[in-house]
Amino acid sequence: MSGVVDPSLLDGAARLLAAARSVAALTGAGVSDESGVPTFRGAGGYWKNHRAEDVATPTAFRRDPALVWEFYNYRRDLLAGVEPNAGHRALAELESLGARFTLVTQNVDGLHARAGSARLLELHGNIWVVRCTGCRGEHTSREALGALPRCTACGALLRPGVVWFGEPLPPGVWEQAERAVAESDCLLVVGTSAVVQPAASLAWRAAQAGSRVIEINTEPTPARDIAALGLYGQAGVILPDLVGRVRALRVQQGTQETTS
Length: 260
Ligand code: BV8
Ligand code: ZN
Description:
Layout: H1 7-19, E1 22-27, H2 46-49, H3 52-55, H4 58-63, H5 65-80, H6 86-94, E2 100-105, H7 111-115, E3 120-122, E4 125-132, E5 138-140, E6 158-162, H8 171-182, E7 186-190, H9 201-208, E8 212-217, E9 229-232, H10 235-259
Parallel strand pairs: 1-2, 1-7, 2-3, 7-8, 8-9
Antiparallel strand pairs: 4-5, 4-6
Helix pairs in contact: 1-10, 6-10, 8-9
Bound molecules: ligand BV8 and zinc ion.
Residues 132, 134-135, 137, 151, 153-154, 156 line the site of zinc ion.
């Protein structure tokens, strides 16, 4: 993909967003790519060096918890040095541009919250949360964890507070995400390969409910089939441009309302 988006497409997308009463966004690893965080299935992706079934399933953790913690400690160390990028910040600004806005993310890196997104649903948990496999105690920690961290209260093994393959999504969070996309007039699908379920199905649910889906990605994904518009290029470049156009339209709407 050329990476430079046709301005008429950006204007079309901005008009859909500025006219929407309710907007949702579904993001994946691609939105953190420009912060220097590897994606899962791309060139330098995590799944190139590890098999998901060896490091991101409950079976893997039972079989070799040290290997699983090596994988998550490696990702925590890598994330300790990264910052949210312009794409994260643009989505945080979109939340304040009038329409009811919900950001649904598959990412566990915490970068949306750090960029200022408040109406945020983390479908797959958060890598900074650790949960005790014994007493279920949970806390957030950003310091380095040992090879086999244990609960100070009960001594059982701690696990990362993320949703592994084969595990259900956090109950309340999933229902809120379903409702947010079904009620949306417009859904942005940003930086996801749209293959992990049930998260990816939210794009199809939105389209079925009549929401206009806008895909933002470096390449088309299966979600392209149900998207009203596709903006292909880097999310960290497209999102700030797009949100700037929405902001200008919102200002115009504001002045029209006051003068009408
Ligand atoms: C469940 C947390 C049931 C851990 C993750 C067969 C068929 C269909 C489904 C299944 C199946 N077999 C099993 C399943 C279900 C399974 C699943 O979907 N498997 C898939 C892989 C086939 N799902 C589950 O197991 C889920 N649970 O179903 O439970 C259940 C119900 C009740 C009771 C018991 C059980 C749980 C899924 C959650 C797994 N956990 N993460 C961790 O992070 O370590 S998933 C993992 O993948 C991440 O969360 C990630 O977010 C997610 C999706 O990946 P993406 O974010 O899309 O990243 P990816 O690299 O794939 O793509 C990046 C995209 O960005 C690309 O499109 C690229 O082009 C683009 N991009 C790159 N750079 C940029 C960019 N775009 C813009 N700008 C850029 N700069
Ligand atoms: Zn415990």
